[in-house]
Structures are given as C-alpha cells and as structure tokens.
Amino acid sequence: MRTRVSLLAVSLALVVSGCASLPDYDLARDAVEGGDPDTAVEHLKPLADFGMPEAQVLLGDIYQSQDDPDSFVLAEGLYLKAAETGYVRAYGRLGRLYQRRVQNEGDESRLKEAQHYLEKALDNEDTSVIAELVELYIAYPEIVGNRDVEALIRQSMAEGDLDANYALVRLYQMRGEAEQRKQEIAELCREALPEVPECYLEIAEIYQEQPDLGDVETLLEKVKEHWTSGRIRSGTVWKIANWLADKERLKPKPAEALELLVMIEDGYPRSIYGQVRLLNEFPTLGSTEHLLDLLKRGRDLGLAEVELYTGRIYYKGKHVPLDAKKAEHHFLIASKEIPKAHYYLGNIYREGYLGRDEPRKAVDHYLIAARAGSMQADFALAECFWEGIGIKRNVGYAYSFAKLALAGGHPRAAALLEQIKAIVTPETIALGDIIALREQAEREKAMLAQVDSDTEESE
Asked: Is pTM beyond 0.70 here?
C-alpha cells in the first residue's frame, strides 16, 4: 500500500507541476523484469527526482546492474536519499553496496557503513541481508560483538526464512567447510528454490563436481519449469545462462545457455545480446548469417550493447569484412549510452582508418571514455601526451594518465610510467601526481552530479 500511496502523491504533484507525460512506477517495474532498462529509467527518473523512495531504490538497482564505472556513485546517491526518508529497503541496498565494496574491492573504509546499514536493515526485520552480514562477520570477526552468527542464521531458518538457508551455505563456504558439506549444501539450496535464485548456481556447481548428488540437466529442466510458471524472473534465467557459458567453468554448456536465452527472448530483449556473445565465443552454435540476423534484431530494438558489438565486428573484421565507416556509424550510435564506444572511435580517428588522421578528434573521444572509467582510454591519452599525438606534448599529463591507467589495471601502463620517469624531473612527477588526483576527483564529482542532473532538465 505504501507504494500506491506514494505513487499517487507524486503523480498528482507532477500533474500540478505541468509534467506532460505521467511516469508510471508499475510500468517501470515491469520493464525491469522484461529486460528493458531504458523504459524503466525513463519512468523512474522523474519519480526519483520528486522524492519517491521506491523509485529511487529501483533506479539505483538498475544503475548497479549496468557494467558501468559510474554505477556505485549513482546507486549510492539514490539509496541514501531513500534511506533518509526511513524507507527500510534502502538500508539493505546500502549495506550490500558497501559490503561488496569492502569484500570485492578491499575498500575497508566502507566497513563501518556496510555493518551499520546491514544491521539496521536486520533490526528493521529485513532478514534478506543475513547472507551479506554473515560474510562481513566472518571476514572481520572483530566487528561481530555479542552476535552469535550461526544462531542468528538458524533462528531465521526456524522462522521459515529461505534466505537464511543461503546464509548458512555462505557460512560453511567461508569457514572452509563446503567440501565436506556438499550434500547438506545441496539440500539447503534445493529447499530454498526458487525463492533464492543464487541457489541454482550453487546446486549446479555441486552437481558438476559430484554427479551422484544430481545432474545439471535435471536442474535446468527445473529452471525452465519455474520460469514458465512465473516463479523465477527472466533476469535469474539470464544469470544462469551466463554461468553455463562461462569458459572458466569445468564443463561449460553453451548450447544449454543458448536454449535458455532463446526461451526468455520475447520478454527480455537483452537476451539477444547474450545470444550474440555466445555465437561469437562458440561459433559451432550457429552460422554467421544467424549472428548477423541477431545483431540486426538487437539494433532494431535499440539495444546499445548490440550497436557496440556490431561496431566491434566491423572494426576487427571478424565475421564480416573490415569496414571502418560502418564501425564508426555503429560506435557513434552506441556512444550515446555506452561511453566505451568513444574509445573505439578514438582509435579509428587516431589511426586514420577512414583515410585521414584526425588525432585531435581522437583525443576528444579518448577523454570522454577515460572520464567514464576506461583504462584503455587512459593509456591511449598517456601515449598521445607522451608522443604529442593530436595535442601538444606534455610529459606531466602523460605521466598522470599512465598512472590512472595503471590504477585501472592496464597491463602496459607500468612500462610506460617507467619510461617517463627515466627522463623527467622529480618536480614533473610531483605535478603528474597532482594532476592524476585532480582528474580522479573531477571524475568522482561528475559521477555524483549525474544523480541530480535530471531534476534541472525536467524544470
């Protein structure tokens, strides 16, 4: 009822303020489920800007799901706004956001925030955060205090909370007990299906390693059954398909992954992009004609990821003859939504693939991509400033962008940094450090600004 009341109040306010197109939260939620984030964002942004916490949380979820370096800051800003209103779901979202920051990226400065919001969510009866809280407690036992972690989990299990089953699984894994508890883990996860989607992958891993406990094929039939009956979402099937196709797995199953993606295609357009990736990585799954047909269908649906992929195949000459003009066309379309496309555009202009060198234009595109978090673009800018390509040579800037590229993990950045250090003065290095810090601060500032930018555009 809270969502309905909030939505009504916000809708009336938007009508009074002269908003021509009334945003629809329910439509946005359906669009998220259907794999159409663009429609969801279109409806959620005005609601979030107007202060509707449900919309702020859902919009934050969308940003988090995107492979975008801005996602953390954008989601954090939205969740914080929702949390300020006392919206309980926002506490769990913030806790998970900070917990991943701590455990996946080693950012221990977020530890207290992660603990605070996860415990606040739990104290407000959001038991779905127990698994993340358990991971935090095990990794940092000094923060547990008087809480009995396993007792907390088993209490929730006794109350019928299936998320607690998964929390116990994670506890076993983090204690190093997973190997000897495979059968128990499989039983815990079977009991939690389909309510706890993570359990599909846990069971599949166990079945792959120990077939006597079950087989993946039967599990996949269960996935299809649960999806057909509406008990799991297409987004869960998408994740399972990606896991099946992962080449790092012991026995990847690309054909089965493709079958799942085809199954959800009608209501989940992004599955077309997933099929494209599969056909590219596993050519025996289909012909080049089939791949090109999928790319066209994806472009017709306005999928920016497919535009980027199409640009890349023309850029590399893979599956189709190399065609820089067509590559540029598709990268320009993709660049409206995916900053990484600017990196490829920079390469086209820098190398003169269109018949003429346009180094200044290349630098402009590299800068857009770099400020969106592309380490490749940072490295390209370092080279441009180092060699004076398209811009006046500046070893201080070359050093700073090489340093940013190294921080991003570029494999050649360290060698370039050493090359630069060998001929510059300590004063230049100090200046380069300052420039790098300033550039990083500007990027973070730009990310934060995006959270509120749409409010001004709608006025």
From this structure: no
